[in-house]
Amino acid sequence: METKKPKRYFRKIVKNGSSLALNLPKEWIEENQVQLGDLYEIIEEDHRLIIQKVIKDEDLDPVFLKAMENSYKRFEEDLKELRDR
């Protein structure tokens, strides 16, 4: 299996009102289907920032959610047993 090479983008810090900001690369915005108003979580880890979209239940396919709920109910006791080991 071929390892995907990470993409690198360079951006300058800009002033946005009284805050500092980074503009996101257009290519990344398009690839990730970023929309105005989307909520993103920013995690700091080892002096790096990880940016990931916050997925809300309404963003998920209802059929998928129902399947996950049914699977959880079916295996709930087994999952609890594994958790408590």
Automatic annotation (TrEMBL):
Coiled coil: none
Pfam families, A to Z: MazE_antitoxin
GO-annotated molecular function: DNA binding
Chain ranges of the SpoVT-AbrB domain: 14-59
Protein name as it appears in the record: Antidote-toxin recognition antitoxin MazE
Record organism: Hazenella coriacea
